[in-house]
Amino acid sequence: MNHNKDSVVWLFKVLSILFSVFLVACSGQALKPKTAPVNSDNRLSIYVENNTAYLSGVLESDLPDKLKDMIRQHPNVTDIVLVDVPGTDDQQATMEGARLIRRFGLNTHIAATGYVLSGGVDLFLGGVKRTIGAGAGVGVHAWSNAIGTVASKLNRSNPIHAAYVNFYLEMGIPERFYWFSIQAAPANRVYFLSPEEMYDYRLVTE
């Protein structure tokens, strides 16, 4: 967490290019997903070793069920390590997953040199304690939908904004983080937060 902003951007410049294609939301749901569905190679997987669960892939509608099953089968799990999470294709399920993580009293950690992008950041926020490994990336951007609605262009009074803001407040994250995230980068790109920004917006607890 001692890298400056320039080094973070440099380290993840390539990741930004590779994964920006996954970051356009394309759903008509009330809460807009934060990334488009991708192929099966990026499907959600959870692997448990001792008291740690390792999670990778795009967050899908079955995320809450997978988390419940994981806890049921491995009640000793205390930590979830997010390895590479490029986003979500079901924002409501992602928020529910984050709430489950908080309810279960689990901690979240982003693996060293790993990354969470877009909706993956929301899942990370569910952790009671939230930490980030050296060289890990946290990327945000504006959501958009299939008909071209862009988060940053909507009036601030739009109820869709309120759903996100309320979620962040519930997770202990200041409202200003939401407004920052939807202005930081367009829907087809990603902005990687600096360590200073991660602490300023209370994304990390230690």
Structural features, described:
The structure is a single chain. The chain is an alpha/beta fold and 206 residues long. Helix content is 35%, strand content 18%. The protein contains eight helices and seven strands; from the N terminus they run ααββαβαβαββααβα. Strands 1, 2, 3, 4, 5, 6 and 7 form a seven-stranded mixed beta sheet that branches. A hairpin with a 2-residue loop joins strand 1 (45-49) and strand 2. The longest helix is centred in the middle third of the chain and has 13 residues, at 91-103. The chain is globular, with a radius of gyration of 16 Å. The protein starts with a helix and ends in a 6-residue tail after the last helix. 41% of the residues are buried. Residues 1-30 and 35-40 have low confidence and may be disordered.
Q: Which structural traits does this protein have?
A:
globular; alpha/beta; single chain; disordered N terminus; 7-stranded mixed β-sheet; 35% helix; 206 residues
Describe the protein's topology.
Layout: H1 5-11, H2 13-19, E1 45-49, E2 52-56, H3 63-73, E3 79-85, H4 91-103, E4 107-117, H5 119-124, E5 130-132, E6 137-140, H6 159-170, H7 175-184, E7 191-192, H8 195-200
Parallel strand pairs: 2-3, 3-4, 4-5, 4-6
Antiparallel strand pairs: 1-2, 6-7
Helix pairs in contact: 3-4
Q: What does the largest sheet look like?
A: 7 strands, mixed
Reading the helices and strands in chain order gives HHEEHEHEHEEHHEH
Distance between the termini: 10 Å
Alpha plus pi helix count:
8
Compact overview of the structure:
The chain is α/β, with parallel strands linked by helices. It has 8 helices and 7 strands, in the order ααββαβαβαββααβα.
